[in-house]
Amino acid sequence: MRWVEIYCAPTADSREIWKASMTHIALEGGCFVLSANQFCRRKDYPPPPEYVFSGTEEDLTPDSVVCAGGSVIISPSGTVLAGPNYDGEALISADLDLGEIARAKFDFDVVGHYSRPEVLSLIVRDHPTQPVTFTSTSEKTDGPHK
């Protein structure tokens, strides 16, 4: 069985909460996560009024930061290996130990040894059905469920 080893997640979201999302993906997927984000200032865009930044300060200067970056590399164990960088344009890098992927699968492997097909399954129907059905081991009644 093959699994994702390196998950690439480009974004324009420079909020700190994005790192939490990337950490969750790394832990849940048992993979390395490389999230690249842009760092840009107002001067990197065409002059006003061709481009309007809604929801930002009214008097943007050419050096005002529009997107603060936050690129990050996270290991399958949730350890931040590089970044996040919010200080300007930068190149981040990290040495990846691919053996860490297998070690992470021993902790939590959602499609491997922790999967329980005898308990849970996913069925995809290609036709309309009732969204909710009731089943019971007791005798079936013709009246509404109470």
Automatic annotation (TrEMBL):
Record InterPro entries: C-N_Hydrolase, C-N_Hydrolase_sf, Nitrilases_CHs
Pfam families: CN_hydrolase (PF00795)
Superkingdom per UniProt: Eukaryota
GO molecular function: nitrilase activity; nitrile hydratase activity
Transmembrane spans: none
Domain CN hydrolase: 1-98
Gene Ontology process terms (BP): detoxification of nitrogen compound
Family: Belongs to the carbon-nitrogen hydrolase superfamily. Nitrilase family.
Designated name of the protein: CN hydrolase domain-containing protein
Organism annotation: Quercus lobata
